[in-house]
Amino acid sequence: MGKSKKSRGSRAGAKKAAAQKQQQQQQQQQKEQQEKEQSAVDADPPKAEDSKQEPETQAPQAKETVEKGVEEQVSSQASAAASATEQSDESKNQATETSGEDGKEDTNDDKNTDADALGKNESVEDATPKDDSNDSTAADTTDPAAESATEGNAQDDETREQTRSKLDDALGNRPGREELAKDGVLGSKPGVADSLQATAQELDQKLRRSSLDQSLAQRPDQNALEEKGVLKKENVSNTLAQTAQDLKRQLSQDKLGDLLESRPDIDELKRRGMHSGLEVAPSLQDRRSSLERQIHADKVARNMETRPEASELERAGVLPEGSSEQGLAPGLARPKRDLEHQMRRDSVSRGLSSRPEPEELAAKGILPESSPLQDEQPTDNSRDENILRSRFAIALKGALHLEKLGLIDAQLKGILKNLIFDEDERIMAVVEVFETEHDVNDMLDGLLNVLRAHITGIMTAAE
C-alpha cells in the first residue's frame, strides 16, 4: 500500500516537473521570438523598396504579421498540450499495470490525473481561466502548471499588445521619402529606379575617384610649380625671405642686362630680315607691310585690266600665231613651236638622208639622163651669198622685233641696221648661234648687247 502511494507520488511529481519544464521552454521560445521581433522593429531602417508604400498600407501588413506570429504561438502551445496529454495517458497505463494491489485507489488517482490533464488542455486552448462559480471542483483540482501556463499566456498577450503598439508608433513616426532622400538613406538620382540608386551612387563614386586619380597623376610636381612661380619655395626662413627675394630680383636684372647687351644690332636684324630697314615704330611695321601688299595688289589688278588681248600679242610677235585659237597657255606656246620646228627638221633630215642619187633616179626613169641638175652645180660663192642673205633677213627681223617690244626706238633701230648691212662680225656670230640653237630670246639679247657695246664705243671715242 505504502509502496504504491510512493510510486504514484513520484510519477505525479515527475509529470508535473516535465510539464513545468516544457512550459518553461515554450515561454523561453516565446520570449526569444518577441525579442527578435522587437529588435527587428527598433533596429532595421525602412528599405528603399518599402519606402514606396504609404504608412496606411504598411501598418495593416505589420499587424497581419504579428497576428500570424500569435497564431503560430497558440498552435505550438496546443501541440505541447497534446503531447502532455499523451504522456499522461502513457503514465496512466503504466500506473494501471503496476497498481494491482490497490486498484480502487489507483483508479481514483488516474481519474485525478486525467482531470488535471484535461484542465491543462482547456487552459492552453482557451488561454483564460475558468469561472470558479460554475465548477468549484475544477478550481480545487487545477494544476499549478496550468495556472503558470495561463499566467504565461496573459503575459504573452500583454507583450504582443505592447509590441503591436510600438510597431504602430514606429510606422506612424516613420520619415517620408523626401526626408530619407535628404538624409542619404535613399538615392536622389533622377531617372533611376529606387532599386538601382545604390548601384548608381557607387558608379558615380568610382567615376569621381578615377577622375581624381587621373588628375593627381597628371598634376605637376612641386619643383615644376616652383619654377613657374606658382608656388614659393619654403626652404628659406622668414628672416631671410626678403633678402632671398631681393637676390632673385637682382639676378633677373643681371640676366636681362646680359640679354640686352648680347642682342644683335639693327644692321644684323636687317640682314636676317627681322627689321624692315625703315625708321618706323615696330607697332606700325606690320601695318605698313600690309599697306604695301595692298598697293601692289591694286597695281597688279590695274595691269591685268589694261593688258592686251592674245590677238594683239600675236600681232606684236610676243605670242606665236595661232596660240590663242588653240587655247594654249603662253608658257606652253613657245615649247610647242620649238617642238614643231624640231620635228620638221628631223623629218627633212630623214628625207634627205634616204633620198636617192640623181643617177639612181635616172636609172629608174624618174629623171632624164641629161638632167639640168647635173650640169648646174652651185658654186661656193653663190652658196655664201645665199647664207649671208638669210642671215641678213634673220638679223633684220630681230631688229624689227626689238622695236615692237619697245626695247629700242627708231634711231637705235637704224644704227642696228647699219651694223647688219656692214656685216658686223658680232651680229653674224649671234645669227650663227641662232641658226644652231634656234633660240629667239638669246638672239634678241645678243643683238641688244652688240648695240649697247657699239654705242658705248662711240661715246668713248667721242670723249
Automatic annotation (TrEMBL):
Pfam families: RPEL (PF02755)
InterPro entries referenced in this protein's UniProt entry, alphabetically: RPEL_repeat (IPR004018)
Coiled coil ranges: none
Ranges annotated as biased composition (Basic and acidic residues): 32-55, 101-133, 160-182, 285-315, 335-348
Top-level taxon in the UniProt lineage: Eukaryota
SMART domains per the UniProt record, alphabetical: RPEL
Cytoplasm found in the keyword field: no
Regions of compositional bias (Low complexity) in chain numbering: 10-31, 72-86, 135-150
Protein name per the record: Phosphatase and actin regulator 2
